[in-house]
Design brief:
Elements (H helix, E strand, L loop, with lengths): L2 H20 L13 H8 L29 H13 L6 H4 L7 E2 L5 E5 L4 H6 L6 H13 L8 E4 L13 H18 L3 E5 H9 L5 H4 L4 E3 L2 E6 L2 H6 L4 H14 L12
Parallel strand pairs: 2-3, 2-4, 4-6
Antiparallel strand pairs: 1-3, 5-6
Helix pairs in contact: 1-2, 3-7
The structure holds uracil.
Length: 265
């Protein structure tokens, strides 16, 4: 707004304040972020006679700390999801059909974090619903004896990297704040990082997944257990046994029953 625009606006405000005074208003309760002009217009919409007497310029509204986020965890997750749906912070936005935010119980004790949506996830807007997703669901339901809906499942990046390539650092950097906010809201007791990209991103390390898996690490104070990605397990079924050992560590950590060993899912 130029000087003239600002001066006009101030004059208009002064006029409205005077009008309000004439209407008997003595105090302005323009609390918080409510715009003075809007307030004035709402309280004296029909009084339009210009009053030329200058009123003191309105004081700049005092800066209040940002309001604490409100709503249930689900509502707060929905609010983040609404931001993700329109996100264009990185080049992945151009190629997506749907953003893939996350699913599950907002109060989940376990959060599974993969790398990024594949073709099927991009099509449906839900994480881990393709072939690897079916295996993950089996690992959770048939292996751990939990329901998929009882855990929370998300990814490092919310849009599909073309051709299922690894997400680029700039894509991870752009998207990570959304994941951080999801984790902060859900406050899982254990995070299970699925595969190299998730584990290395969250732990800020270049150590190979084969060395990281099999023991708990910490992600900002939350125990994090890396394990093999289900897509890797589809290609290397002999490693399912190791992944099952990892999942049993999570169950034990949470004091949950460990189903007797059976043929891995
Ligand atoms: N692989 C992932 O890492 N995430 C998905 O959502 C699907 C496949």
């Amino acid at each position: 707004m130029g000087h003239r625009g600002a001066a006009d606006r101030l004059r208009e405000l002064s006029r409205r304040l005077e009008t309000l005074k004439l209407c008997g208003h003595r105090y302005l309760d323009a609390a918080g972020a409510e715009d003075l002009k809007t307030w004035a217009a709402r309280h004296a919409p029909s009084v339009s006679a210009p009053i030329e007497a200058a009123a003191p310029p309105p004081k700049a509204p005092s800066r209040r700390p940002a309001a604490a986020p409100s709503g249930t965890k689900q509502e707060q997750l929905d609010a983040i999801n609404a931001e993700v749906r329109v996100c264009v912070k990185c080049p992945l936005a151009k190629g997506r059909t749907n953003t893939v935010f996350g699913v599950g119980d907002p109060a989940a004790r376990i959060m599974f974090i993969g790398e990024g949506p594949g073709a099927e996830e991009d099509r449906r807007g839900e994480p881990f619903v393709g072939r690897a997703g079916q295996l993950l669901t089996d690992m959770i339901e048939k292996g751990m004896n939990l329901r998929r809906a009882d855990v929370y499942i998300a990814n490092i990046v919310k849009c599909r990297p073309p051709g299922n390539r690894d997400p680029e650092p700039v894509e991870v950097e752009s998207c990570e704040p959304y994941l951080k906010r999801q984790i902060a809201l859900i406050q899982p007791e254990v995070i299970c990082a699925l595969g190299r990209v998730a584990a290395q991103t969250l732990l800020k390390t270049a150590t190979p997944i084969s060395s990281l898996r099999g023991e708990f690490h910490a992600y900002e104070g939350t125990p994090l257990l890396p394990t093999f990605h289900p897509a890797y397990l589809l290609r290397n079924p002999a490693m399912k046994k190791e992944a099952w050992n990892d999942l049993k560590m999570i169950l034990r950590r949470l004091g949950l029953a460990v189903p007797a060993d059976k043929k891995s899912p």
